[in-house]
TrEMBL record:
InterPro entries: ATPase_NBD, Gcp-like_dom, KAE1/TsaD, TsaD. GO terms for molecular function: tRNA N(6)-L-threonylcarbamoyladenine synthase activity. It holds the Pfam family TsaD. The keyword NADP does not apply. Required for the formation of a threonylcarbamoyl group on adenosine at position 37 (t(6)A37) in tRNAs that read codons beginning with adenine. Is involved in the transfer of the threonylcarbamoyl moiety of threonylcarbamoyl-AMP (TC-AMP) to the N6 group of A37, together with TsaE and TsaB. TsaD likely plays a direct catalytic role in this reaction. Binds 1 Fe(2+) ion per subunit. Keywords: Acyltransferase, Cytoplasm, Iron, Metal-binding, Transferase, tRNA processing. Residues 30-317 form the Gcp-like domain. The keyword Transcription does not apply. It comes from Bdellovibrio svalbardensis. Its cofactor is Fe(2+). It is an enzyme of class 2 (transferase). This is tRNA N6-adenosine threonylcarbamoyltransferase. The gene is tsaD.
């Protein structure tokens, strides 16, 4: 029986390895961030990401074992992200997982990265336990640099896409605005910090599709509007007004996300809602989601930040559950750009 897996996540620019039980207990999760290497290019460079994964991965596997005080004897399978993501980056993780699976005579399974994000609220460790009453079904908002989608989740493998961004992801929108305002990359967290002392009503930004009949979203108009605003003001005035600009821009994104989450929760008569993905670290979004949950009597679960951003623990949890059901991948499994259908 599969009780514990080693998990590998290399879909984007973070290399991460974890050892996770089928119960969701995380024995260890370790990661190497490449933010500094990509910052000078103002965005993620796929070839650099793949090269860094190939350097970091094996030492991280050793570190994950050391931290958990375990060896290969304690591992029953290997879970690895094989979709969606940067193809070169995915290949590094996938080929490593296949090789280890062959060498150690244990099965491996390719995992959908988004499924990992959606089940991250179940993860637990020595510092963190999810609320006891947290279970399926729930409405989930997955928001990151690459994805912004709403799901109704009714069980393992049952993810019903309600709506998605028609263009840019919310995280990408945060990052582009931050870059244009001279705040570096990835800039979401800097916008969040500056916004804390700013006035969210100081500048007017569009909230596309907020009142339409669907659960879909759009952020490209907001991105262009942000660019125009920064150009009109010029570098000096932008610098002087950064807190107000960040607070106003952030509020436009958060208004749309909260409106769609509220609408989905109402439509599905949900009792539980979750936020997941890197953008769920945003303090304003968290506060507004908590307020929504209180007003509508919903159970809100946001995983700790270490499980919101890209990490191998969430991949390991999905892997352990699926492998316990008998699922394994064939040795000719390839990487894929496919998101959750
Ligand atoms: O899930 P994640 O770590 O990687 C992807 O799969 O994209 O998400 C990264 C995204 C980036 O766009 C980053 O700017 C954004 O999450 N982010 C934030 C905050 N922290 C991270 N956006 C807004 N406020 C934050 N505090
Ligand atoms: Zn992600």
């Amino acid at each position: 029986m599969i009780e514990r897996v080693l998990a590998i996540e290399t879909s984007c620019d973070d290399t991460s390895v974890a050892i996770v039980d089928r119960s969701g207990f995380v024995h260890s999760v370790v990661a190497a961030s490449q933010d500094l290497e990509h910052e000078m290019y103002g965005g993620i460079v796929p070839e650099i990401a793949a090269r860094n994964h190939s350097i970091a991965l094996i030492p991280l596997i050793e570190e994950a074992f050391k931290k958990a005080n375990m060896s290969w004897n304690d591992i029953h399978g290997i879970a690895v992200t094989n979709r969606p993501g940067l193809i070169g980056a995915l290949i590094v993780g996938l080929v490593t997982a296949k090789s280890l699976s062959q060498a150690k005579h244990i099965p491996f399974l390719g995992i959908n990265h988004l499924e990992g994000h959606l089940l991250a609220p179940f993860l637990k460790d020595a510092q963190h336990t999810p609320p006891e009453d947290f279970d399926y079904p729930y409405v989930g908002l997955a928001i990151s640099g690459g994805h912004t989608s709403l799901y109704h989740i009714t069980g393992l493998g049952e993810y019903h896409v309600l709506g998605t961004t028609k263009d840019d992801a919310a995280g990408e929108c945060f990052d582009k605005f931050a870059k244009m305002a001279g705040l570096g990359f990835p800039g979401g967290v800097k916008v969040d910090q500056l916004a804390k002392t700013g006035n969210p009503e100081a500048y007017e930004f569009p909230r596309s599709m907020i009142h339409d009949d669907t659960f879909d979203m759009s952020f490209s108009g907001l991105k262009s509007s942000g660019q125009r605003m920064l150009e009109q003001l010029g570098p000096e005035r932008v610098k002087e007004n950064l807190p107000d600009l960040c607070a106003s821009f952030q509020e436009a994104i958060v208004d749309v996300l909260i409106a769609k989450l509220d609408k989905a929760a109402k439509f599905y008569k949900a009792k539980r809602i979750i936020l997941t993905g890197g953008v769920s670290a945003n303090s304003r979004l968290r506060a507004r989601a908590e307020d929504l949950a209180k007003r509508k009597n919903l159970r809100l679960v946001i995983p700790p930040i270490r499980y919101c951003t890209d990490n191998a623990a969430m991949i390991g949890y999905v892997g352990a559950l699926r492998m316990a059901r008998g699922e394994t991948s064939a040795i000719d499994l390839g990487p894929s750009p496919q998101a959750l259908a």
